[in-house]
Structure prediction request, 634 residues.
Amino acid sequence: MNSVRHRIVIAAITAAALLLPASAPAAVPSTAVSAPADQFAPTYDWLDGNGPHVLRVNGVAGGTGSGDKVDIYCLRRGEATAPVIEDVPVAATGRAFSAALDASLPALRTPCRLRALPTSGIPADLAPYPGPRFFPSGLRDFREQNLVNPNVGVLYDVDLNTVTPANTSTAHLQTFGGCGLWDARPLDPAVAPDAPARNVFDCAGWADDVADAPPTRSELQVDGRNAFTGAMATLSTSALPDVPDRPALTRTASRDAVTGLLSLRESTEVVRCETQPPAYPLTSAGDCGRFVSAGVRFVREATMSRDGRVTTMRDRWESSDGAEHALDLLLEVDLSSQQYGIQVPWVGPAVSAYAGTASINGPPAAPASILVRSNRDVPDGDLANPTGAVTFSTAPSSIEFVSVENPSRYMQLRYLRQIPAGGALELTHTFSMAPTAAESASLAALAEDSYGGPSVAIAAPAAATTSTVPKVTVRGTASDNRGVARLTVAGLPVPVAADGTWSGEVTLTPGPNTIVAHATDGAGNASEASVAVTYAPVTGTPCVVPRMKGLRRISSAKKRVTKAGCRFGLVFYRYVKPTKIRKGKKIITVVTRRGTVLGTKQKIGAKLRPGAKVDVVVQGRVPKKPTPKRKAAG
Prediction:
């Protein structure tokens, strides 16, 4: 909640007062800023800190006379702000003006429109004072600047900001101990940055050194002790900035020149006070002694996607001393104003705001999402009041709202977890934003899907199977936390049943075959399973089903089957009753001996593939007569 300590704070001046007509006629009735060009997007500060970085503003003023001056403003979102530079002289001949600005000024770090305005104030009608839309992007490092501070020169934070080329979003990225994702909102390309628009996230995915409730602990604790990153310590309002041995930040940060998307990888040792302070927050650096390792290292990879409207933070809490550690984290998400509304799906469908003492149980399962409205009183679809979502891979223990405000716009995801000895605890969060609630819900669903890929398994045929037939039926299962979007077996699509089972027929080629089942989910995650099957077709003379009726032994039938180029198959037993035949004047009873071959299941003389199986039918034993039922006595 205290992220404004080093965020860019531009004092808002009452628009009604500033937009009133000036009391005297403006000496400069019109201007036209000719440079920079519209939608100019410079990188105004490099990660190595080299500079200066100059933005040159040129233009021509209307009117006549000498001694006129203009002020250069960067007006944003319909808000009135102070000039970027004042009293820029207008040449008497040609009425040209020019100013060199420090492009790293706070006022030039978010989208705005450059205008040259009379020094007498901001006119009510800005139409005579056109200027270019200014969409900055930058990469800035923050190092300790105080020469008497024991940590002078230590890198502790970084700030990246961007507007993507399509002008559909704007956002900043800072570290876990800075502000995380901040000043983030989707833009309307048609009117940005002139139309007012709320942020979806003022800050998100960060932790402060002093919790809001109660204000007697850090939002990060390890093994029950208050713990800090370098940025948390540096930006503290207590005595932490003066404590020696502050951990340095290691970072890799970039802005893609084509897409405008940001990425930030940060890592830092987590530290605690060497001594247990008598009270917290600190009033004296001596109460802490010096910083020592808490036995934990923090690593974050933050990446943007979807034209800057989705930011994913993958956090690893690593044991750096080989011991297990208890983590108590209050991960803060600051919404734009008290007019916000959130929908917590496992609580109900209502869009609500919460008091500063409210606490909600975490979801019964994860991944899960909380849906956000920047203004709960405005109809859905208004880009001036956009929507968003917070998605998490691991269920927080609780969602808490803190501050004296009612409702509170400060939401904390509380995690009570163990960092395994010699291992790591991974927590992933995705922050999405879009014009409509349906779009934000869709982005949240994709984020949930992205946290885990599908699983796929082949149940049949068994591994290392040899088949003598050219086609086999492959069966298996597939599953995903949001559903399998597509399954292919040997490159052909196969439907997945509601219970996750599937089957498909695959044509083999002679020799070894590797059958691959490939499952994909809606987020593009994929998984594969494979089985090796060898197709060994039987070669030689075709099998012609022989006549075998009357053979007295099964062994004789086997020899005849083999001689016919076939394989002996199954034996089926059937009992044939004795029959009476006339032989001359005599009636003879013919009894078929048990074990005598009665015939074949396949048609006699049928031509089958080489080595095909032939099943025989054999005389079985006499069926038992049923036992007569006894009549009941008397």
Notes: Residues 3-25 have pLDDT under 50 and may be disordered. The chain has four domains: 3-134, 138-450, 455-535, 543-619. The radius of gyration is 39 Å.
